[in-house]
Amino acid sequence: MTVERAAEMLATARHGVALTGAGVSAESGIPTFRGEGGLWTKYDPVKVSSIDSFMADPTSYWRVSKERGSVALAARPNPGHLALARMEAAGHLVAVVTQNTDGLHQDSGSRRVIELHGSGRTVQCLECGTREARAKVQARLEVEMPPRCPICGSIFLKPTVVLFGEPMPVAAINEAYELARQADVMLVVGSSLVVYPAAEVPLVAVRSGARMIVVNAEPTPFDSFAEVVILGRSGEVLPEIASLING
Ligand code: NAD
Ligand code: ZN
Question: What is the mean pLDDT of residues 182-207?
């Protein structure tokens, strides 16, 4: 059975690394971008999530972000996040590299989380650099659209997430590649593996000799590089793996 094999691989891992995508948070009620019910079946990503469109029209950006933010801020970790935190605490994973911006890995108790696309929990003024908690800005959206910087009054307040057309956070990318190079087991969860450079992380791991496990609701382009592919929901599969490891 594939679940047993995945558990065996992680139980003996000395440097296990997880890479997670939007799928790991789907069971927390946060819609994915791609795949069934994905947000991009509703929105044009470049229109709503690029730095150019944000700069041209912050109000339109915040209209969409207001709706998504209220869902993300209310979301709680699901059994998939919790299983990853347990695996880290037990020494079977050294880190979680994530494409997600929702902060749910940290909420679930994961200690070393590398955020490749930034964090949606903070908002920054592009004019003066002031940072505020997203929850605080979210509360203002009812009366202020677009929200303004409390210090300089600028309308260019942007969540600290990486939008299309923005550079990736170099330190996080380098840390992810370094973890991948050292990995002996690479556990990929809930990612369509089509967004670069995040999709490159498991490839670097495999090229450096890691054995790969993929847990995803649908096949990914890199399944052929994996020793174990489990098609399923991460909130169900990961707790099964974690409990098999712990006997
Ligand atoms: P994606 O949306 O491209 O792909 C998600 C994948 O997860 C799909 O292949 C889908 O089949 C699978 N999936 C859906 N539900 C699942 C479940 N319950 N269990 C296991 N797999 C499931 O996500 P991505 O590859 O992470 O890339 C999209 C980008 O969108 C990321 O860069 C990320 O920054 C951003 N994003 C983040 C969030 C979040 O923070 N929660 C949500 C949406 C998008
Ligand atoms: Zn400001």
Answer: 94
